[in-house]
Specification:
The chain has 265 residues and is an alpha+beta fold. 38% of the residues lie in helices and 26% in strands. The strands form 2 sheets. Strands 3, 4, 5, 6, 7, 8, 9, 10, 11 and 12 form a 10-stranded antiparallel sheet that branches.
């Protein structure tokens, strides 16, 4: 049975004293209109309340976000200052070498001579000298499918950085040095598993993670394309792949910017 509004609604007001009663009559259309208006006002009121709550919550987050932005800007300014200082030091180093009449060929010769000497200190010094003037890394360590690209940190959205690029290839694939340099560190890391870290010239460092086994060790001198490890899935890795990073003067950079071509097989 459907509910129907009566044709008219009577409202009787009975006073508490001896005055006469008052009677009002409201038509069905007016009653329906008032009911719909009340429902609409209620919905609008709820929408306003919800919108206000959302805006209030966002407003409370503004000071925190502003604080993070100020901190990030301060860190960025500091990094820029350090980069300028490092650039100045590198330029000064090159000028000193030029004034001394030392070029790359002479450094290579000195490194080779020192490496063949019996004095370990002279050999180590020669290896370091041979790396000073080497070019930046220019060889992809593995050719494979890229599953994750380089990404900087997003402080506003809380996204952590990904300082390298992930390359998928069959387990056991040769991992090659991206450039000439000296193995600065080779061992185990809880995140990277078996890893190799190579220092190159002009402030460049490359890192190779999740290797199944290492072929080089700390202090070894490597050439571009030389096999340094085997691809694997050690450390925090869900599948075999190579995590490859490039750092310049202490700052991570996108490998695609430094190394020409594409790592895609």
């Amino acid at each position: 049975m459907l509910f129907r509004f009566p044709p008219h609604t009577r409202i009787i007001v009975i006073p508490s004293d001896d005055r006469s009663t008052n009677e009002f009559s409201i038509s069905r259309r007016l009653l329906v209109a008032l009911t719909l208006l009340l429902i609409l006002v209620t919905i609008l009121f709820l929408i306003v309340i919800l919108s206000y709550s959302t805006l209030l919550q966002q407003a409370r987050q503004v000071p925190e976000l502003q604080g993070r932005l100020v901190t990030a800007n301060a860190q960025l300014v500091r990094v820029q200052e350090l980069n300028r200082e490092l650039d100045s030091m590198r330029d000064m180093q090159e000028r000193v070498l030029t004034m001394l009449g030392v070029n790359r060929m002479q450094l290579d010769a000195a490194a080779d001579t020192a490496a063949g000497a019996n004095d370990p200190a002279r050999a180590r010094l020669g290896e370091v000298a041979g790396v000073i003037m080497t070019p930046p890394p220019d060889v992809w360590p593995v050719l494979g499918h890229v599953t994750r690209e380089f990404a900087a940190a997003d402080l506003v959205n809380g996204r952590p950085p990904h300082y390298g690029i992930d390359l998928v290839a069959p387990a056991g694939t040769d991992v090659r040095a991206a450039g000439r340099g000296i193995v600065q560190s080779a061992g185990w890391d809880d995140d990277l598993g078996n890893y190799v870290e190579i220092r190159h010239g002009f402030g460049y460092v490359t890192i190779y993670g999740h290797c199944s086994r290492l072929i080089v060790q700390t202090g070894d001198r490597v050439e571009p394309g030389q096999t340094i490890a085997a691809l694997g899935g050690t450390g925090r890795a869900s599948a075999p792949h190579l995590h490859f990073e490039i750092w310049r003067d202490g700052e991570a950079v996108d490998p695609r910017i430094v190394i020409p071509g594409s790592p895609e097989a």
